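Example protein was shown:

_____
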Amino acid sequence: MTQDLGSVADSGTSHYVDLPAGRFHYRRWTPDVPAPSAVLVHGNGGTWATWARVGAALGAAGMDVLAVDLRGSGASVRPPAGSYGLREVAGDLDDFLRALRVHAPLLIGHCWGGAAALALATGAVADRVPPVLSGLVLEELPPDMAATATQPVVRDFLRMMRSSPEYVAKWVDLVCRDWHPVDRESLLEELRGTDVQVYLSAIDEGAAAGPLLPLLARVKVPALVLRGDPRRGGMLSDADWQLARECLPGHCVADELPGSGHELHRGDFAGFMRLVREFLATVA
């Protein structure tokens, strides 16, 4: 599952789909034969590009992979403030699966994307029947959106969004110097292109959903919950992690990557993919 992409733009192909909320952009890696599906859901402030290497790796392994730009992100529709609650975002994700007739996908969500995937899978915030899923991978699921506002990784992201391009480039080169060039490039794109108001709206409006970790007890499909090191920017404290593990049903697993921060899939791509491969083997 290794690849040496020249740039983010070399990964996958771009597509658009019209949903009830507007036009959404997504990136796709499609094999030549029918294959199981994986849908990748980025975190707050991200775009499909956060998954450039993950999407290519899963596609090379024989999966039909789709990475969607959530509302307000990337090239997708940008509704006004007041439209970024978990109900709306999870509803978009459900509409996306239905419009593209994605059958029993594996949902992989990072942070806010993980919250949307969890809400969709459990039917927790919308009057909808949850779609059929093959499994969930929840990377750095926040304990609740209100808590994210106090996280150092959020303060850093906001500061970078408000800084000059030159300063941001130097910061990424320094802080993310061990990342693959494609992952550094994707982070730079996000920092330069994210709408600060949308970013803050997702935190403020998402907080109305309340605590997220107890929802893990309602997961009915196999799930892998992943945590980064809280001392390196990971979102979940030791107390949060203990609660998450206690809430998880027996058919789900929890794991962590020591030394990795909030961005497991970019900061420790090899470790992230190893855990996902192992999980996929159990799901299959």
User: Anything to note?
Assistant: The mean pLDDT is 93. The two ends are 18 Å apart (CA to CA).
